[in-house]
UniProtKB/TrEMBL annotation, chains A, B:
GO terms for molecular function: ATP binding; magnesium ion binding; thiamine-phosphate kinase activity. Its EC number is 2.7.4.16. Belongs to the thiamine-monophosphate kinase family. The keyword Magnesium applies. GO terms for biological process: thiamine biosynthetic process; thiamine diphosphate biosynthetic process. SUPFAM superfamilies: PurM C-terminal domain-like (SSF56042), PurM N-terminal domain-like (SSF55326). The gene is thiL. This is Thiamine-monophosphate kinase. The keyword Transmembrane helix does not apply. Mg(2+) 2 binds at residues 45, 73. Mg(2+) 4 binds at residues 28, 43, 73.
Length: 320, 320
């Protein structure tokens, strides 16, 4: 199969067609329209075999995941996802693999009403770079720099499941099949918090998606907002799968310092706290308050059952 | 060096700041503004070590080239380049290499007034995916589908030099140093025809950039416009470097079927031919007429000194 055949078979004419796309796949560029009084939000994420996923990841999960992690960045800005460009580097053409991989892509793209408008297909070690574009009303985007003293700190759902899935496999942990299945499902098919991000818009004071780990991602907000925080480790929501670990330290390590779950972390003022909780509930999201922003020279203080708790090593680091 | 340090040292605060960028590197997304009555043009190109370039390519050239090939796609639509997202996968951190590589990127970005607004840096086999965004007035973009019977076919400059540089190295051809130097320069530092693309806007009937080879890229225009063409191989402009090959067949093979020079191929009606030539001349571009669009069931007829000439094998193909 040649490059053009591959594009024709797996991309052209598949997926949704948005009315704001004048020209999709098949010319030197795509042509799209951004509505008036809106800004364009743009993000890029790369997944590399052996670094971000195991070689035997189900291809449908990989297709889902590479789009999900990009939509998660749009969600963290409160943007409405619109268009995707895909840079796909493949070692060879495996029709069965490609069919499942692109099924995974098209399924999530369709669910979130985003259109794949172009990209590049090349031969080489399996690497996928997605550039996602979304739309946000002028001046309404959520950034990392708006957290203020006294704001409450929330997460949109349980943390640590993706870490559990990865580490259970790496370390050969023995985990009940139902818990392993659930943890794998969260790693393979993360749900970007797109609706929640749009609900937060104009109410939350800052937001970020938890891709590198709760504490690492919170530290970006603290730094860019010029504030500190107190976090209660015992309040961080965790799943039944994670709770099945009988090692409390390990459980907290995964929940606090592992990324890849793609929940949102956000801050909100005391005045707006209850209203925002109620509004998120309407969208099926149950945010959990895990701490508060404080003025303490940018420090991050971690408590567990109100006792000081040592900060775990934070987040995934390339090139460390 | 960690990922954040790498981004800080080589990307953040370097390069130009455009007034239409509200938020650049450092949040979940960049935020930019598209002017009213304009469309957004989006393109993506990936370069992979060992496929698109040799491992020992000068890093400054690689940084230049990966941006140039993307700007060339914007040029082919008549778009004004605006913003770049970079997906950079590196096997390791080599400060000297990175310094030169990012110098090459920032130099060309500055020259064309484009801002690097974000991306992702990961560890893995050397692969670079750039997503370039540009702006074009509503309805004025150049596409591949507008060529009409009787239109003249042009290229914006000499072809085959990049192919000469690559093949001379691969095959160990003996070429005069000055010619080899010039051919390498064109392969390493291609000049995307950004100004020419904007001059063509609203006048040329179709355009494409020559990345896969003249005949392969022309065939896209023919297919998408539903027309055929006659090309005069002897009229295709070639450099002194390429002319120094004493094998005429090889010379034509490189000029007609090798890509990577990033000149534009365009069509223009007989009425607008002279005006467009004069206008391009004002921008230092000397377009050369190499044939004509004809109605002949989509066939591509190649003549050399008015004699039929066999079509060379066309274009670079992944997975062929």
């Amino acid at each position: 199969m040649k490059e053009f055949e591959l594009i024709n078979r797996y991309f052209t004419g598949r997926g949704i067609s948005r009315r704001d796309v004048d020209l999709g796949i098949g010319d030197d560029c795509a042509l799209v329209n951004v509505p008036e009084n809106c800004q364009l939000a743009i993000t890029t994420d790369t997944l590399v075999e052996g670094v971000h996923f195991f070689a035997d990841i189900p291809p449908r999960a990989l297709g889902h995941r590479v789009i999900a992690v990009n939509l998660s960045d749009l969600a963290a800005m409160g943007a409405e996802p619109a268009w995707l460009s895909i840079g796909l580097t493949l070692p060879n053409i495996d029709a069965q693999w490609l069919e499942a991989f692109t099924d995974g892509m098209h399924e999530i793209a369709e669910y979130y009403n985003v259109q794949i408008i172009g990209g590049d297909t090349t031969q080489g070690p399996l690497t996928i770079t997605v550039c996602a574009k979304g739309i946000v009303p002028n001046g309404k985007a959520l950034t990392r720099s708006g957290a203020r003293n006294g704001d409450w700190i929330y997460v949109t759902g349980p943390l640590g499941d993706a870490g559990l899935a990865i580490e259970a496999r790496k370390q050969g942990w023995s985990i009940a099949p139902v818990h392993l299945k659930n943890a794998n499902e969260r790693f393979f098919y993360p749900s970007p918090r797109v609706a929640a991000g749009q609900v937060l818009r104009g109410v939350a004071t800052s937001a970020i998606d938890i891709s590198d780990g709760l504490l690492a991602d919170l530290s970006h907000i603290l730094k860019q907002s010029g504030v500190g925080a107190v976090i209660h480790a015992d309040k961080v929501p965790t799943s039944a799968a994670l709770n099945s670990l009988d090692n409390d330290e390990l459980r907290l390590q995964l929940a606090l310092a592992y990324g890849d779950d793609y929940e949102l972390l956000f801050t909100v003022s005391d005045d707006n706290k209850n209203m925002l909780e109620a509004k998120l509930n309407q969208y099926g999201v149950e945010p959990v308050c895990i701490g508060q922003i404080v003025n303490n020279d940018g420090r991050l203080e971690l408590l567990n059952n109100n006792q000081p708790w040592p900060l775990p090593e934070v987040g995934f680091e390339h090139f460390s």
